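Researcher: For the annotation table, I need structure tokens for oligopeptidase A. Please keep the output clean. Sequence:
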Amino acid sequence: MIKSTITALSVAVVIGLSGCNNTSEPQGTDTVKKANYSNVLLQEFSGPFQGVPQFDKMNLVDLKPALEMGMAEHLADVDKIANNPASPTFDNTIAELERAGKSLDRVFTYYGIWRNNKSSAEARELQKEIAPKLSVYDSKIIQNSKLFNRVKAVFNSDEYKALTPEQQRITWLTYNSFARNGATLQGNAKLRYAAINQQLASLQTKFSSNVLADEESYVVYLNASQLSGLPKSFVVGAAAAAAERGKVGQYAITNSRSSMDPFLTYSTERSLREQVWKNYYNRGGNGDQYDNNGIIKEILTLRHERVQLLGYENYAQWRLEDRMAKTPENAKALMDQVWPAAVARVKEEVADMQAIADKEEVKITIEPWDYRFYSEKVRKDKYALDSNEVKQYLQLDKLREAMFYVAGRLFNFEFSEVVDGSVPVYHDDVRVWEVKDKASGKHVGLWYLDPFARKGKRSGAWANTFRSYTTMDGETNVLSTNNSNFVKGPEGKATLISWSDAQTYFHEFGHALHFLSADVVYPQSHSGVRDYTEFQSQLLERWLTTDEVINQFLVHHETGKPIPKELVAKIKKSATFNQGFSTTEYMGSAIMDLLYHSTDPTKIDPAKFEKEQLTKLGMPAELVMRHRSTHFGHIFSSEGYAAAYYGYLWAEVLTSDAAEAFADAPGGFYDEALANKLVKHLFSVRNAMDPAQAYRLFRGRDADVSALMRDRGFPVKQSD
């Protein structure tokens, strides 16, 4: 997704999750035609590859003045468009809005790094100060009645019918953003709408800061006697994490998924598993100064009030109106098809785990902190598959080479590392590759990789861009980036990751390929439809299990020998293993998200609401939501996934259906003709076309949910 010129509800998403920035100067704006800026954050990107961010020169003290100047310049751009005496046309209104605010785009690139990759107490304090100012600026654009009237005139004009399909699409996107975000309001309602956005900006920033504070504060330090069951590679990483925190000789279990997950899988110390589990799943809910329960209620109350000003019954109804699902009822209907099968599978999984625990005579009942540990025992028992054994063949660098191989076969991309220091980076861990088209040798863009966990970096994995491909004012290249939180291996040794992490690695690279393969004219064509944008990345995960990748890139980190065929067979045989757990923990969060945003907030006490609703749903006691409410950043630290977390499942339906198309193709997952259709219809068009139409062009029909059920090993209901 890119920074739209009208983003009243998405500034936090833009700077937190993405940043597709173009460097061409806005047309006809006197204030931005200065020859130079003294503030590096405002300056056009410089150096090779059409210019790159000057990360080596970024300084936090420059951020506030840069944002203030960038906002002022963008507002000047907007005022000039709004007050143009000429009749509204696509070129003098919509296209000019696409050009406006480029200096601010560049500032957002750096701001995103401080929010996500280089956070600090000082940066977080500054974010609290900046967030409401960004909201005020955003409201000034959305509530500019002259500007909206011009956009509306173009949307309703005879000219609209003669525009290209992409021009019609971005005109509609622009009009829709104004109309759905308060542009039609008058008087006190208009003022209240802006005030609500300002309050929400502050609250969402505080929510995120509170979660990060708990991630940094709750670290479990172990001594050598407490390492029972843990793989050697994990122990080495834990020692390095402790040393980084000034605890040499100890072992740190950090409060991140990449540390928590393997610890709960392998540690034989049940009381420590419970402690690590509670630390992770109680983030933002510890009843202290960083507790988010009160903030959640405030956010829900304000969102509800805001959409009621627009005439909607609830936030979910407003949010889904322009998504593929269209209505909360449609989103819920999909989840209702999958939920019973997922819960039933959990019961089977728990029964298998309990049987092993009983056989071992440990006299326990499976609790949430036992699930991963005993699940691993079941995996070994049922499939003779040891996750740690698999991990020895999953080297981070080799997996990156595998991703490059897939990109070469499907997209005709070639990656070569930039090692001459010409591209500045913001941390020594970051590496950069140039991307070219293999056939023509044409430069496509750059790919930045920031793979390792560290203090000040938010948890999880994500992708964004520093610049996106457009041609409206000359062809621009792509500056894409992938970010992960893997535990770095010891100096000179390979970093080994789990199978799940390897899938995530491919997933995020799918987002990068989506950016790199774009073929659109206008910046706004990169804006995303949330229940569709995960599809491309989810689909790329499927290439991890192709024979071509397995046979070439899954080699032992010490011997260099390929992964044994017997082990590969076990991996494939266990493909649907633990689908009850993974599906149910995800859907618990997705269903709660819809419930939060379709329920009168006066009736919601977050802690009680979560417990009551999950009990009503029949959520198994042996696991919890993937993202419990108090650290559910997808929906409470911004609005990108609010009332839309279901989108991963919606996209998974597309993924499963598209994967079956490749499985059935003559050339399998590397079928050239189908790969060409994939790139043409599902990757290159971005949001320049309605996603449903794009998928039909690829598949010849709409996606079939039964493919998802087959993928997960769930029973498929027969049609009447």
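Researcher: And a one-line annotation?
Model: The first strand starts at residue 220 and ends at 222.
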